[in-house]
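Inverse folding, one chain.
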């Protein structure tokens, strides 16, 4: 990445940050579930810019290589059939396929001890609001996004040889997922009735962040809770909210310490319900 590209990226992220703040700050002020917290804001802002730049740089060559291999191995008849599908149908298919892939990537981050070392950074937050969405290890984001986008590419729904709007399908899938992730982390007390069975809401994702015995390691989907229902991991009790957030053992503080956390041999898996790393 050149200096000009870096500056452009920072400006773009700054503009998005202003828009997101204009949307979520008033909403959380009016409908806050918990008292708003200001501690740790600086770290959240650092993660916002870091994860707005680095994961995309790491994913781009991986996805470009995957797209090239898939295109070379895909029968022309299948490519022609996809080309005849309406754009909306392909976009919906990509959203669903990507959600299933990301679900399993996210679930593995909880079930595989090595992956949990990275994912624990995100769950270390003891207070949930919209900006906490950005607090994550960059390699954790790369892994989950790759799990979501890889099947989209493998099914030809994100061909780099597509023209027009079809070529933007991976961008739309990533953009919708990212914006929705800010929403479901929001510190709001909304309960939305039957809508909660169709799309992920703050209540749905807050339960994913609980450190209580009830609800831990559930609700892995980013946008569609019925995927969790399908795989038996849905937890969304009516009119209830998690009593506590966070993890059993705090991640070592500071950006540098948190980024190095997964590579420290003395750092165990941090929840009794998750696999324990050998030697812990």
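Residues assigned per position:
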């Amino acid at each position: 990445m050149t200096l000009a590209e870096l500056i452009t990226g920072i400006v773009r992220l700054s503009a998005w940050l202003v828009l997101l703040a204009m949307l979520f700050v008033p909403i959380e002020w009016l409908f806050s579930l918990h008292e708003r917290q200001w501690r740790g804001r600086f770290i959240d802002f650092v993660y916002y810019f870091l994860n707005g730049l680095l994961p995309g740089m790491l994913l781009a060559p991986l996805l470009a290589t995957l797209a090239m291999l898939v295109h070379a191995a895909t029968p022309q008849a299948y490519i022609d059939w996809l080309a005849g599908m309406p754009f909306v149908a392909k976009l919906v298919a990509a959203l669903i396929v990507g959600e299933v892939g990301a679900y399993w990537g996210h679930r593995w981050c909880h079930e595989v001890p090595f992956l949990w070392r990275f994912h624990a950074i995100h769950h270390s937050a003891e207070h949930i609001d919209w900006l906490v969405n950005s607090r994550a290890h960059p390699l954790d984001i790369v892994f989950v996004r790759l799990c979501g986008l890889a099947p989209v590419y493998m099914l030809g729904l994100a061909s780099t040889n597509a023209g027009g709007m079809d070529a933007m399908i991976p961008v739309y899938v990533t953009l919708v997922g990212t914006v929705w992730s800010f929403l479901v982390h929001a510190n709001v007390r909304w309960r939305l009735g039957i809508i909660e069975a169709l799309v992920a809401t703050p209540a749905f994702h807050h339960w994913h962040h609980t450190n209580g015995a009830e609800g831990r390691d559930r609700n892995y989907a980013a946008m569609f809770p019925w995927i969790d229902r399908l795989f038996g991991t849905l937890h969304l009790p009516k009119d209830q909210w998690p009593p506590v957030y966070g993890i059993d053992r705090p991640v070592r503080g500071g950006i540098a310490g948190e980024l190095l956390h997964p590579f420290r041999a003395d750092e165990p898996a941090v929840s009794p319900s998750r696999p324990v790393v050998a030697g812990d």
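Residues 269-280 have pLDDT under 50 and may be disordered. Residues 130 and 186 are 4 Å apart (CA to CA).
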